[in-house]
């Protein structure tokens, strides 16, 4: 198996377990290809877990957040695009909580970095001892030339490509990180209101801890994304994503080589560029994938067959039959790369997964806060004052 692939004259890493896409995968049916690849599946970021010590700020502010009411809903697949891991549909109840109205922006993340000196996963040199823990036994160590701080950047093709080989549109770019989304020659000047990207699950957790918040559970995220609608496919209802006026930032045209830009964007868009859902939440479909707190297991929903759940926290551990060596966390919401021809990530029930150390050009997050805990802290603070 090749460890490197030359793209545009540059040696870029497409690490081993994506090289573990066996030649037999090329014989998969269309449906199984969609299941295994989705529109966001990529390599792991392959870096050591975060070691920064971030202190909880005890911030009780609810600025930029909206109250999501307690409720009960049917969680899971809504149409014929649904994948096996979205079934069975099952009843879930959630307590009320506060949720960020938008994805965390570059400006918000910068405040966190300025206050803490935090270094993101993408800015860290990969640690081989950590990497090999989630790779098949006997995998060879890569050359030092690719063991550098880097992240994965989308590369648009100029022609149709075989959709099962996602290595063709992702490039391992040294120097790509949240401040340099397309690599060291890019920047976020003037993009303070864009969602922060190249964020690993560890990065999102660190930010949440500093901000006095947390990541949403997968159930909370889906309930909030539905915006009060009952059994609808998208945050806005049932109208297909490409019908009518633009409703989300997605890939319009033929992926990965032709984007009509009907929605006005080829990559990430500023937050609040599209109408909010019924709860006042923006970009719950498209723009960037959003981390949830849960471990991912492809058969997790099976545990709720014939019964309901109250505030589910996800499985106790991760399992993904396609890649059993690498533990994964859940992402939701789709991104600017999602398209109905191969991915429907903007459906409210769509599930995605990736290793916690993965950071990509289309991966960000938003936070939530418990109503009860925030109220209890304010009361305790007022008494002490």
> Terminal Cα separation, in Å?
64 Å
Shape: globular
Give the strand order of the largest sheet, numbering strands 1, 2, ... along the chain.
14-13-11-15
The percent range for helix content is 10-25%
CATH topology: paralog of FGE (formylglycine-generating enzyme)
Give the low-pLDDT segments: 1-51
Strand content: 15-25%
Structural class: alpha+beta
Total beta strands? 16
Biggest sheet character: 4 strands, mixed
Number of domains: 1
CATH class category label: Alpha Beta
N-to-C SSE string, H for helix and E for strand: EEHHEEEEHHEEHHEEEEEEEEH
What's the total helix number?
A: 7
CATH superfamily, called what? Answer: paralog of FGE (formylglycine-generating enzyme)
Radius of gyration: 20 Å
Task: List the topology elements.
Layout: E1 4-7, E2 10-13, H1 16-19, H2 30-37, E3 65-68, E4 71-75, E5 90-94, E6 97-100, H3 106-116, H4 128-131, E7 150-154, E8 170-174, H5 201-211, H6 218-226, E9 253-254, E10 258-259, E11 289-295, E12 309-310, E13 329-332, E14 352-354, E15 363-364, E16 368-370, H7 371-384
Can you characterise this structure?
The protein has one domain (4-384): paralog of FGE (formylglycine-generating enzyme) (Alpha-Beta Complex). It has 7 helices and 16 strands. It has helices at 16-19, 30-37, 106-116, 128-131, 201-211, 218-226, 371-384; strands spanning 4-7, 10-13, 65-68, 71-75, 90-94, 97-100, 150-154, 170-174, 253-254, 258-259, 289-295, 309-310, 329-332, 352-354, 363-364, 368-370. The strands form 6 sheets. It has a 4-stranded mixed sheet with strand order 14-13-11-15. Strands 3-6-16 form a 3-stranded antiparallel sheet. The chain is globular and about 50 Å long. The relative contact order is 0.22. Residues 1-51 have low confidence and may be disordered.
């Amino acid at each position: 198996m090749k460890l490197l692939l030359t793209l545009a004259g540059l040696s870029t890493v497409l690490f081993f377990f994506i090289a573990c896409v066996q030649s037999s995968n090329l014989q998969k049916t269309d449906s199984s290809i969609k299941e295994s690849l989705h529109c966001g599946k990529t390599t792991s970021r392959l870096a050591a877990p975060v070691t920064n010590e971030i202190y909880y700020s005890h911030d009780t502010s609810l600025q930029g957040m909206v109250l999501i009411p307690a409720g009960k809903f049917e969680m899971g697949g809504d149409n014929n695009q649904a994948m096996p891991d979205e079934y069975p549909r099952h009843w879930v109840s959630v307590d009320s909580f506060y949720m960020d109205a938008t994805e965390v922006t570059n400006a918000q993340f910068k405040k966190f970095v300025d206050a803490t000196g935090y270094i993101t996963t993408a800015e860290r040199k990969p640690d081989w001892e950590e990497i090999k823990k989630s790779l098949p036994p006997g995998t060879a160590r890569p050359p030092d030339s690719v063991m550098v701080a880097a992240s994965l950047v989308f590369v648009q093709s100029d022609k149709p490509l075989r959709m099962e080989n996602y290595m063709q549109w992702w490039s391992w770019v040294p120097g790509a990180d949240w401040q340099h989304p397309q690599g060291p020659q890019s920047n976020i000047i003037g993009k303070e209101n864009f969602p922060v990207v190249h964020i690993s699950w560890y990065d999102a957790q660190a930010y949440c801890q500093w901000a006095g918040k947390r990541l949403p559970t997968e159930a909370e995220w889906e309930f909030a994304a539905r915006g009060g609608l009952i059994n609808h496919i998208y945050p806005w209802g049932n109208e297909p994503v490409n019908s009518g006026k633009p409703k989300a930032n997605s890939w319009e045209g033929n992926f990965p080589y032709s984007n009509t830009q009907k929605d006005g964007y080829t990559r990430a868009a500023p937050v609040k560029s599209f109408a909010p859902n019924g709860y006042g939440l923006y970009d719950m479909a498209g723009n960037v994938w959003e981390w949830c707190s849960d471990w991912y297991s492809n058969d997790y929903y099976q545990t709720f067959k014939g019964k309901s759940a109250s505030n589910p926290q996800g499985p106790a551990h991760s399992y993904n039959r396609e890649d059993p060596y690498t533990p994964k966390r859940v992402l939701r919401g789709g991104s600017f790369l999602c398209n109905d021809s191969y991915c429907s990530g903007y459906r409210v029930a769509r599930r995605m997964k990736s290793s916690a150390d993965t950071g990509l050009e289309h991966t960000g997050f938003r936070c939530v806060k418990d109503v009860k805990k925030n109220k209890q802290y304010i009361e305790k603070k007022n008494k002490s004052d």
